[in-house]
Amino acid sequence: MSNINSMKKIFDYLDYHEFLRDFYTEKKQENSFFSYRYMGLKLELDAGFIAKVLQGKMDFALKSIPKVAAFCKLNKKEADYFDSMVKFGRAKNEKDVKLYFEKMLSQRGVDSCRIEEKQYQFYTKWYHTAIRSLLGYYRFSGDYPALAKKLSPAITVKEAKGAIALLTDLGFIAVDKEGVYRLTDKMITTGDAWRSAAIHTFQQETLTLAREALDRHPKEVRDISTITVAVSHEDLMEIRARAKEFRQSILQMKTGNEVPDVVYQINIQVIPLTTIGAE
Fold first, then answer.
1. How far apart are CA 214 and CA 227, in angstroms?
2. Tell me, what's the pLDDT at 270?
3. How many structural domains compose the chain?
4. Coil/strand/helix, residue 40
5. Exposure string over 204-213, b if 16+ CB within 10 A, otherwise e
């Protein structure tokens, strides 16, 4: 970026508010006259509104994006990324969050890969979490064809290699002195805006696996049951609380055999089959 040398590159930002705060701070250090009022005059916007945008309390209107990009002296590629970043920040549903986050990833290019991108990739394929769980008991030291066949459904050797590389980059696994990949205690951080879109993609994949499991696996090794009940809409909170309690009890479950020998995906679906408040 030609005009902001000491700042991070714009492609290192996910939050356009943060980018503009850093831009403002640098310009203020360079020129004491630089202020919210000055920005407001140049952008034909109220200074108080500018301050709230930089604080993350408000968003620019879509029509203001080109003018702000020009004010920051962004080139075409940077301006396109800024446009996606603002739309990502304004996104109100998971579909739009996913759309603009993935667009930002493609606009960044390979040289701008950051940890958020790798964390996002972790959730985009069901076998990433499966392999991570598998390596908790399966001794893997580089036999990718065997690892690929260990999963159900089997994946390709290329996919297995990509998964191991991703898990290693994220710090979820590490090679010991014997050349065996072992799990670490590192966890993905939560709370990022992109995470809801990543989880949405992951859940779509696991639901597809569950549907295919009806034909892929005999009923002796699976459990797929359904119930349909009539409740009040207010009961949903109680149902969700019980489902959460069940999930936690599974995670804490102690089995008679302390050595695992299989990885299971456990899905719980609670979905409305009528419109809310239907008579």
1. 17
2. 87
3. 1
4. helix
5. ebeeebeeeb
